[in-house]
Structure formats: C-alpha cells, structure tokens
Amino acid sequence: MKLFIGCSSSDQIPQKYLKDCEEYLKKVLKNQELVFGACPTGLMGISYRIAKEYQEPVTGICPEAYKEDLQYLDCETEVLTTSISDRTDKAVEYSDALIFLPGGIGTIYEFMTAVESKRNHEFDKPIILYNSHHFFDKQLECLEKIYQEGFTGEKVKKCYHVSDSAEDTLEYLGIKKRTYHLMTAEGKIIESMIPGTIGGNKKLKIYGKLDCPSAKRWIEKGYYKKNRVFFPDEETAKQAGYRPCACCMREEYQEWKSQKTK
C-alpha cells in the first residue's frame, strides 16, 4: 500500500512528538511504500529514513519552490508541482491512503483540503489523523463546534478517522500484521511480531544461520520443511537443547563438540 505521510518538516518541535511518531512510523511503514512532501528534516525526514531502512520505494512530491530539497533525498519517484495545492492533489493521486501527523499550517491545510475533496466525492481513500500526544485535540474540538452549530453536517466525520496508535491505524487500513512462529527455550511455539534470527531442525535438534547452504539444499529438494523451526536468538536455541550446525556455524560446532567430549 502507498501511504502518504503529511507532517511537520521542522526539527524544532518538541521531542515527544519526534519520538512518538518515529515509533508509530516504524510500525505503520513496515512493508508499505512511502509518499511524502520530499523534505529531509523533521517528521518528514524521519518517515523517509524509516522507509529507506525498510528498503521500500519512496515517492517525493515537491513544489518547484522547494525543489532543492530533492538533492538531499534518493526518491525512486520525484514529482514536481507548481504549487502547494497541486502537491496536495498529487498526494491523493499517488497514494492509497493519507495519514497526517502533527504539523504546521501546511499539514492542517493538506488535511482539511483532503477532507473537503473527499466530502465532495473527488476521491474515496482513507484519511487518518494520528493524534500523537493529543496534538490535534483543539482542531477536533473546533470541528465538533462546526458540526454541533450546523455549519457542516456530522456525516463529514465519516471522511476521516482519528487514530491513537499504529495498531489502530493498521486495523483501520485493513493491513494484516505479519506474525512469526518462534520456538521458546521450553520448546513451545509462540507467535511474535519479530522474525527469528536462527533456524533449526526439530528432528535433528540442530540450529544454524537462516542462510545455511546445507539447510537451503534440503529445503529445495522438498525435505526438512516440516521439521523447520525458528528461534529469536542463538541462546534460546541452546536452551531448547539444540546444537550448532557443523556447516554454517563451524566454530560454534567445534566448541560444542569439545565441551561434549570433556
């Protein structure tokens, strides 16, 4: 999914927003493409760096007035616009959903423009407002006043979703969180959001690296898959009673062998 992230480009905002939104983006941008305002600083810069760490495609949408910012970025797709309003239109065009984090006038403008465009049936994509540390409380109170006093119908609320966590955002977008099945030190299989770092053969009680050439050969031949297990780390594999692979972990295997013969 291509996610547009609208947010602050300032490094001078309070640290609580930078830290919280970084954790949020690490979860939300996993396995997703980034579309953003092509700025290397602030929350925009954080979203860009996270997408690059995940090796996900990045689309940078930048007004002509700020095109110099593109030289500090490595975007797979670069889109130059004639104005800020044009950038908002392109953000909608290039993304599957729009997410807004704490930001200044530009962010508020983009959010309100997106809501108004969706209200007028110009597009029908999810719009999410991530209310980090209650940043948008006052804006939401203002919108409530507008609804209550009849300036705008409450059905406009259906045009956007206010989110308080990455988990809520992913659920709203219908993105299924990937889970991994790992073996514990007690030999039980549990679900984890973090992938294993060590592979194992539960029949032979051997553990090794995920790219072990020996394991790869047997898997390609159609064997071993039913006995394949994964561990969060090497220490857990040891505690579960597994020994090192002689092929991909020779030093560890020799050490295990020498200790066994003592």
List its salient traits:
alpha/beta, 262 residues, DNA Methylphosphotriester Repair Domain, elongated, seven-stranded parallel sheet, Rossmann fold, single chain, four-stranded mixed sheet, 13 strands, 9 helices
What is the compact description of this entry?
It contains nine helices and 13 strands. The chain is α/β, with parallel strands linked by helices.
Write the SSE topology.
Layout: E1 2-6, H1 15-28, E2 33-36, H2 42-53, E3 58-63, E4 77-81, H3 84-94, E5 97-100, H4 105-119, E6 127-130, H5 137-148, E7 161-163, H6 166-173, E8 180-183, E9 189-192, E10 198-201, E11 206-209, H7 213-220, E12 228-231, H8 234-239, E13 243-244, H9 250-260
Parallel strand pairs: 1-2, 1-5, 2-3, 3-4, 5-6, 6-7, 11-13
Antiparallel strand pairs: 8-9, 10-11, 10-12
Helix pairs in contact: 1-2, 1-6, 3-4
With strands numbered from the N-terminus, the spatial order across the biggest sheet is 4-3-2-1-5-6-7
Structural class: alpha/beta
Q: Give the CA-based shape.
A: elongated
Distance between the termini: 56 Å
The total strand number stands at 13
Strand content: 15-25%
Indicate the CATH architecture of the largest domain.
Answer: 3-Layer(aba) Sandwich
CATH fold-level topology of the largest domain:
Rossmann fold
Q: Major sheet, described briefly? A: 7 strands, parallel
How would you describe what is shown here?
This protein has helices at about 15-30, 40-55, 85-95, 105-120, 135-150, 165-175, 215-220, 235-240, 250-260; strands spanning about 1-5, 35, 60-65, 75-80, 95-100, 125-130, 160-165, 180-185, 190, 200, 205-210, 230, 245. By secondary structure, the protein is an alpha/beta fold. The chain has two domains: about 1-175, 3-Layer(aba) Sandwich (Rossmann fold), CATH 3.40.50; about 180-260, DNA Methylphosphotriester Repair Domain (3-Layer(aba) Sandwich). Helix content is about 35%, strand content about 20%. It contains nine helices and 13 strands. The protein has a seven-stranded parallel beta sheet, with helices on both faces. The protein has a four-stranded mixed beta sheet with strand order 12-10-11-13. The longest helix has 15 residues, at about 105-120. α1 packs parallel to α2, α1 packs parallel to α6 (about 165-175) and α3 (about 85-95) packs across α4 (about 105-120). β1, α1 (about 15-30) and β2 (about 35) form a beta-alpha-beta unit. The chain starts with a strand and ends with a helix.
